[in-house]
């Protein structure tokens, strides 16, 4: 699956918006990314999952992703591989495998995440699975926003369908504000500020 095809599908589903946005952090950006929208159509999710499955250089017995973001994604990737999917949950801040999900030592696992930003959640899943005796083969993601591979120190490959760079600026430094481009707050679908030429 080509990166351009992945990005087209993300744009088509409004998972990837391009323009001028105020993010929940208050920072401004030229892009807004909401991965859940890319996966909410099962047909599109299936295309993405098949794309990731085709990129895997190893075979696994199981797919595991952290709730909530990666539950659907883990399920779809597992379906593409013909393997089961588990999800982990956080309880009192700690990543856990619950609901009767058990790992046999030596189980080959692909850890998945829908979007890798810092890679922190998937890393906690890797740690947990390794403690339980699993052999974690690598991490697979739909979108990598980290700009690199946050699992390099673990000797683990990050397989991504697409790299998406989201540049952010403080309000005062935003070149799109300077251009007077309309500002949108994603989620609200409301234009906050009408563009007025800023000279
Ligand atoms: Zn701005």
Could you explain how this protein is built, in words?
The chain is of the alpha/beta class and 199 residues long. 29% of the residues lie in helices and 32% in strands. The protein contains six helices and eleven strands. It has helices spanning 3-12, 35-39, 42-55, 71-81, 120-131, 175-179; strands spanning 16-22, 28-33, 62-66, 85-91, 94-97, 108-116, 135-144, 158-163, 168-169, 183-185, 190-193. The longest helix is centred in the N-terminal third of the chain and has 14 residues, at 42-55. The protein is globular. Bound molecules: zinc ion. The site of zinc ion has 6 residues, from helix 6. Zinc ion (ZN) binds next to helix 6.
Structural class: alpha/beta
Overall radius of gyration: 19 Å
Query: How many β-strand stretches?
Result: 11
Average per-residue pLDDT, rounded, comes to 92
Order of helices and strands: HEEHHEHEEEHEEEHEE
What multimeric state do the chains show?
A: single chain
Question: How does the overall form come out from the CA principal axes?
Answer: globular
Bound molecules: zinc ion
Determine the fraction of residues in helical runs and give it as a percent range.
25-40%
Q: Could you give a short account of the major beta sheet?
A: 6 strands, mixed
> Total number of helical segments?
6
Strand order of the largest sheet: 5-4-3-6-7-8
Strand-residue proportion: 25-35%
- What is the terminal separation in angstroms? 43 Å
Low-confidence stretches: 194-199
């Amino acid at each position: 699956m080509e990166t351009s095809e992945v990005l087209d599908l993300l744009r088509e589903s409004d998972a990837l918006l391009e323009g001028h946005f105020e993010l929940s952090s208050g920072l401004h950006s030229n892009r807004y990314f909401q991965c859940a929208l890319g996966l909410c159509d099962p047909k599109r999710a299936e295309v993405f999952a098949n794309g990731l499955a085709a990129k895997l250089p190893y075979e696994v017995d199981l797919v595991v992703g952290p709730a909530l973001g990666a539950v659907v994604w883990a399920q779809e990737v597992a379906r593409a591989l013909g393997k089961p999917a588990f999800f982990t949950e956080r309880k009192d801040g700690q990543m856990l495998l619950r609901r009767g999900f058990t790992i046999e030592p030596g189980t080959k696992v692909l850890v998945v995440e829908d979007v890798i930003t810092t890679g922190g959640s998937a890393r906690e899943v890797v740690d947990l699975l390794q403690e339980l005796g699993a052999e974690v083969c690598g991490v697979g993601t739909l979108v990598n926003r980290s700009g690199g591979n946050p699992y390099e120190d673990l000797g683990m490959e990050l397989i991504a369908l697409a790299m998406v760079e989201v540049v952010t600026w403080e309000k005062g430094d935003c070149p799109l504000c300077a251009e007077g481009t309309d500002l949108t707050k994603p989620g609200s679908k409301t234009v906050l500020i009408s563009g007025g030429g800023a000279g």
